[in-house]
Amino acid sequence: MGDAVDAGRFGRMKVVLLGPPGAGKGTQGELLSRSLGVPAISTGEMLRGAVAAGSELGRKVSGIMALGNLVDDDTMAEVVEERLRQEEARQGFLLDGYPRTLPQAETLAGILARTGGELDSVLLVEVPEEELVRRALLRKRADDQEEVVRARLRVYREQTMPLIGYYTGLGLLCQVDGNRPIEEVTASLLALVGVEA
Ligand code: AMP
Question: What residue's CA is closest to ligand 1, atom 8?
Answer without folding.
Answer: 44
